[in-house]
Specification:
By secondary structure, this protein is α+β, with helices and mostly antiparallel strands. The protein has one domain: Alpha-Beta Complex (Aspartate Aminotransferase, domain 1). Helices cover 36% and strands 8% of the residues. It contains 6 helices and 4 strands, in the order H-H-H-E-E-H-E-H-E-H. The chain has a 4-stranded antiparallel β-sheet with strand order 1-2-4-3, covered by helices on one side. It is globular and about 50 Å long.
């Protein structure tokens, strides 16, 4: 998959993720494929992984803390904040940036597995048109990238991610500062 993103980045269209996600559909019953049972082997693997879930989540949190520390002080990037009295479970680490397309292209070309946000901004969906309202925090997700924090990353991998992201924002004029910041 990484190779496809890398090759496509040379043609200016590196957001191939739109081909990987299902289309927005009405909120009716789930498709039949969602109701299938796991095989015995899949269920056994899932149960075994549950024994390690707390340790894996703690490792993901530690990786997120390393990224937060490493990306501090960059004017055009706003790292994820953590609410008090919570213990986040990171699937990926979100950052808001003033130019996510340029940053994503740079990261992908340097071998960093970044993703755009795959969430719908509900106040813009026709399904919710009658409840239309301004939602600046939700709309701000359009400037969000997801960085990897999975448990298999080494300290060296994390240092490389930080270096590549910092390298993308260091050249003058590459990224403009983030204008609107989310309230904490």
């Amino acid at each position: 998959m990484y190779l496809a993103f890398y090759i496509a980045s040379f043609f200016g269209n590196y957001d191939l993720s739109r081909y990987l996600w299902e289309k927005i559909r009405p909120l009716d019953t789930l498709p039949d494929s969602y109701r299938k049972r796991y095989t015995n082997a899949q269920a056994l693997l899932g149960i075994k992984m549950l024994e390690r879930i707390d340790a894996l989540n703690a490792l993901n949190r530690a990786h997120a803390e390393t990224l937060t520390e490493g990306l501090k002080g960059i004017e055009s990037i706003q790292p994820a904040g953590v609410l008090s009295d919570t213990s986040p479970v990171y699937y990926q680490y979100c950052i808001r940036t003033s130019d996510p397309a340029t940053l994503a292209q740079h990261a992908i070309r340097h071998g960093i597995d970044v993703e755009i946000m795959h969430v719908d901004v509900c106040n813009r969906l026709s399904l919710f048109a009658r409840y239309e309202a301004k939602c600046p925090v939700a709309e701000g997700t359009e400037h969000t990238l997801q960085l990897p924090v999975y448990a298999a990353l080494s300290e060296r991998d994390l240092e490389r991610i930080i270096h590549v992201i910092r390298q993308a924002v260091c050249p003058p004029g590459r990224l403009a500062p983030t204008i609107e910041r989310s309230p904490r």
